Amino acid sequence: MDSDKSKFYFGPPINPSCSSLLLLFIFLAILTFQIATRTPPFPFWLPPSDFQLPTCSAFFRPDVTAAVVMSITDFGGVGDGKTSNTEAFRKAIQYMRRFGDKGGSKLTVPKGSWVTGSFNLTSNFTLFLQRGALILASQVSLFLFFYPKPPKITYG
User: Fold this and answer.
1) Cα(35)–Cα(48) distance, rounded to whole angstroms?
2) Taking residues 15-19, what's their average pLDDT?
3) What is the CATH number of the domain that holds 72?
4) Domain for residue 40, yes or no?
5) What CA–CA distance (Å, rounded) separates 154 from 156?
6) Of residues 15 and 144, which shows the higher confidence score?
């Protein structure tokens, strides 16, 4: 008979009544509501709820003066939303690349829609978009026209 008994005896099994389960549920619900209504632990990180940033420039430090400041219109750019400005951007960046070690350069894009293909940026160079300026990626790839047709392979 001694072998039928367990070595660890914690007492008789507890059969909880409905009232004790209900009491436990109410306690957990109240605890949950108290946690959910607390303010964030670091409210100084969050801006006020009615605060709206006009642009993302508020996240950056004030503008550093560049040695050379030019506009994309100086290089033939047109911000009408139809004309391709890829060459204008490439010319501007190529020209302003030489001022990288002489204090840097800044290319300003005025208000308008500027359609362009890809171009590479350079070191010590700022591409500044004025309020209302939008750079649109061209959906037509001009490189497709420069590749020769692949040879036709036939199997006999």
Assistant:
1) 21
2) 67
3) 2.160.20.10
4) no
5) 6
6) 15
